[in-house]
Amino acid sequence: DTAVSQTPKYLVTQMGNDKSIKCEQNLGHDTMYWYKQDSKKFLKIMFSYNNKELIINETVPNRFSPKSPDKAHLNLHINSLELGDSAVYFCASSQPGGGSVFPTDTQYFGPGTRLTVL
Amino acid sequence: AQSVTQPDIHITVSEGASLELRCNYSYGATPYLFWYVQSPGQGLQLLLKYFSGDTLVQGIKGFEAEFKRSQSSFNLRKPSVHWSDAAEYFCAVGAGGADGLTFGKGTHLIIQP
Lengths: 118, 113
Fold this sequence. Notes:
The structure holds 2 protein chains of 2 kinds. By secondary structure, chain A is mostly beta strands. Chain A has strands at 4-7, 10-13, 19-25, 31-37, 43-50, 53-57, 64-70, 73-78, 87-94, 108-109, 113-117. Chain A has no helices and 11 strands. In chain A, the strands form 2 sheets. In chain A, strands 2, 4, 5, 6, 9, 10 and 11 form a 7-stranded mixed sheet that branches. In chain A, strands 1-3-8-7 form a 4-stranded antiparallel sheet, with no helix packed on it. In chain A, a hairpin with a 2-residue loop joins strand 7 and strand 8. In chain B, a hairpin with a 5-residue loop joins strand 5 and strand 6 (44-50).
């Protein structure tokens, strides 16, 4: 019963390709996020969605496009992949304002997707 | 803008010894503070969090952290480390809501036998 899951775990592709990473959470949370962890392990927020609506869109190339078909899913589509896109991408979810089961505003992370662009 | 500083990139501790990992933050209001741990090749696991109230918070795996507003710090401690504690530790700050977390650069913990 994984709370936040991502597929695939590993993704190796050529420069110029288009790829997608999928994220699903079964926690009933309203908010989902994408983070990028670079080769130095630095984590940076890319996007957040609240109930399928884009809330945060940090300075990310427009080749990256998040899509939320429903509040349990947040996919990341990347066009025209570049070498610098190689990183680990983490999905997370939280329930702003808290709830009876999960502590307020705590973000729960998926296992990550390691993207390697050759 | 909010920021997090973890001044120690690497820390080496002998198994059984005590541990303190430092975290300083910059934030305009009362922050939400978190410590996450990342084992090699794994995702981030929440160790503990501070939102309000008691400034000494207990977490999983025997960790605790103390919020000190006057020092803008949220240091992580453990009285006796185990070899399985070897990992990357991240301090993070957030505003709550749908705000993203701002992470420090992490501290790599090495456990000596």
